[in-house]
Amino acid sequence: MIRVMLVDDQELLRTGFRMVLGAQPDVEVVAEAADGRAAVEVLRGVEVDVVLMDVRMPVMDGVEATRLIRAVEGGPRVLILTTFDLDEYVFAALKAGASGFLLKDVPPVDLVSAIRSVHGGDAVVAPSATRRLLERFAVHLPASGGVEPGAVSGLTAREREVLVLVARGLSNAEIAGRLELAEATVKTHLGRVLAKLGLRDRAQVVVFAYEAGLVVPHSAG
Amino acid sequence: MIRVMLVDDQELLRTGFRMVLGAQPDVEVVAEAADGRAAVEVLRGVEVDVVLMDVRMPVMDGVEATRLIRAVEGGPRVLILTTFDLDEYVFAALKAGASGFLLKDVPPVDLVSAIRSVHGGDAVVAPSATRRLLERFAVHLPASGGVEPGAVSGLTAREREVLVLVARGLSNAEIAGRLELAEATVKTHLGRVLAKLGLRDRAQVVVFAYEAGLVVPHSAG
DNA sequence: GCGCCCTTCCCCCGAAAGGGGGAGACCCGC
DNA sequence: GCGGGTCTCCCCCTTTCGGGGGAAGGGCGC
Fold it and tell me: DNA damage: present as a keyword of the record (chains A, B) (predicted)?
């Protein structure tokens, strides 16, 4: 039995979800709240597996509530519900520890299977938004759009390739495997990278890659 | 009719996929290739809607092939197939413009619906990997409130000190000089850092430091 | 006092990395 | 053809790293 909590400031919407979920044999709505703060309060006294959380709410929004809920060890997982598409709010909620998100017009069947997935430890993303999520994810590459020649001065394509893999923490052997090269070749390329950039070892290569924006921390945009 | 191309160096796997897809009324396998370069060549002469692309292949891997294919305006969408789970390769492919990825052991039903989704402009992600994708996407905010001692799990003050210097690209000898310690001591501390954080070498320490926000690009120095 | 952890430093060892040189292959421009 | 650049791979070598011990002092709590 999956114990679900509904958090949304719209009474009608909660009613609708309650009816849909009530019809399921393995799902049980055990709690409700109309805003984030109330939700956090209620959760102190009720055992819940999955929280269906609206993003935009009065008093405390879904992002902050998600953060507080996820800060507790062994607390429930949070599935974000949003009226509109993927927006900054949703991204913030994901960063706050949500297990995924759905649009509120999700077909009941999909909602239930999403709850089961989240309960099982998986994450879910509204299909219509997956593309945009990936796009957003893909933005993380070399400083906006292309590899500017200036930053990596006279490096060849192969050398840059090796550089980036070094910057991901791979050993020469691993890079060789990934690029299907001999380790000797990787060493040759890396040696030239070190010489051209005036670096001493691979640790400095990693530093350079981050500082030059060739590699971007996944936390930041 | 959705025109599909199969790109994989394993003949048997292509055969299996061809049979599964051939049974679908709205899907048609119109081309095949055994490596990325061949795929790009073939695509110059054949109209394709969706490319099912293996990642690891000889000659040219799926990442580079995806990049080339997606560089063409109005070209086909690319769906990545991977044997293993989410790895650096898959991330690279997504960054290169892939519309998503599936594990090769995907149930036929899911494969077909994924192809339809991709053809319709949506993206798809293997359900088992969605959670990890979101983690990777969302995890560690840049420790906005400063670096609290507990953040780096069980590291001692001295270990964190060494970690940061490693993350600046210093050698053990240089760190020893700066902290006025013997190099042996630095090695001891660093060894514990590696063990506690599950890292292999100092290059991975640098990666960790940037990803965890212990070191921030530009502020370097 | 005793145990525990942190810190400091030492040994030895094997593996990985960095540096030197050389060489064959390819492509491209002259 | 001939040179330049890139990519590939090999040899040799020294240094650095990382991992396995061990050991000694200090602080802190019980």
Answer: no
